[in-house]
Amino acid sequence: MTPILECRALAKVYSGRRALAGINLTVNRGRIVGLLGPNGSGKTTMIKLASGLLTPTSGEILIDGKRPGVQTKRQVSYLPERTYLENWMTVDEMLHFFSDFYDNFNLPKAAEMLQRLGIQPGDRLKTMSKGTKEKVQLILVMSREADLYLLDEPIGGVDPAARDYILHTIISNYNENATVLISTHLISDVEPVLDDVIFINQGYIALTESVDDIREQQGKSVDALFREVFRC
Ligand SMILES: Nc1ncnc2c1ncn2[C@@H]1O[C@H](COP(=O)(O)OP(=O)(O)OP(=O)(O)O)[C@@H](O)[C@H]1O
Fold it and tell me: Which domains does the chain have, with CATH numbers?
């Protein structure tokens, strides 16, 4: 089966600064994958390339065997690092915006998850706390029936008690053939839901491994391994 995401000698250079240095990578279907690396290692760049917001300087990135474009936009659901939703919008308006924009948006599922978190249809984005805004956006993005979810720092502002709920209920509550790629610095929080990890450093892939193999073969948590590999 064609992998959901593949990078072949993928490089990205921003006006002389190399962000990705010709990486080769395969991400399979049905996995929750942590994209982990220090600041400036190339995580956001890779996610933007996969979502089609950026184009490679050389090499290629393929979604289900295709270059990012009109066809793959339907298959990919992307949560950017910074919001693109308008502050004046209410929850109800955002739900209808997504529903109009994406034919694979599951409105009843999104409405139910929002209700369970006590977020009301009339609440406006601008009156919400940072963590609540993140919850709303994550629910919207995860409520599309996509093949690949790209989540760039999805829970940085969410309090620790809500993080577990979000990880287990929202992120794990998706179509089991879909893949979720999560970029985060909150490694110990996300570790329980991850199947695989990709360590990235200065534009190079430092490691790709399943979480089970790291635990069994190295006898460590992903968080401990990350601290060891990237110690300053
Ligand atoms: N628009 C840009 N113009 C120039 N350089 C950029 C641009 N965006 C990113 N970079 C550089 O590319 C490199 C990779 O950045 P990127 O944002 O992909 O890293 P990251 O791993 O997501 O970092 P963080 O964990 O801090 O969010 C960094 O050196 C960064 O300074």
Answer: 5-229 (3.40.50.300)
